[in-house]
Amino acid sequence: MHSYTDTSRLRGRAVLYRLIYAAETVGSTGASTLSLAQILGAATVNNRRDNITSAVMFHDGWCLQGIEGSRQDVDRLMRRIRDDRRLNNIRIVSDKPVAERRFPEPMGLCDDPCAMMKAIGLTNMAQITAYHADRIVELKQAA
Prior knowledge:
By secondary structure, the chain is of the alpha+beta class. It has one domain (about 10-140): Alpha-Beta Plaits (2-Layer Sandwich). It is about 35% helix and about 30% strand. It is built from 4 helices and 7 strands; from the N terminus they run E-E-E-H-E-E-H-E-E-H-H. The strands form 2 sheets. A 5-stranded mixed sheet has the order 6-3-5-4-7, with helices on both faces. Strand 4 (about 55-60) and strand 5 form a beta hairpin. Helix 3 packs across helix 4. It is globular, with a radius of gyration of 15 Å. The two termini are about 25 Å apart.
């Protein structure tokens, strides 16, 4: 079993970060079963290697992804994401230190994005704020 430990330190404690971003998707990114399988497969391998836990949601031409790990690991992944031609207009919604991981897997998927959007009271992911993103994390963990 893979152990998720963090290497950055603050006052002797491991520092964990959670970054959540929203982005417009290009073409059929995240819209087809094949696209989802390719994204989830590659991300699971890479995130396990890089000690990242994550969850992603695709909805109506948008992607919302939460990433957890050390500052260095999260920043490295975000550099790769910014270079990904399947995403446009990437916007950091939230980026903060957290006490613990909320995403149990290297790469999880929200399987009912319409219900999640309804639960947070939004119809368009372009409107998402840090409050909404944190609410999604809470709802996902409670599920």
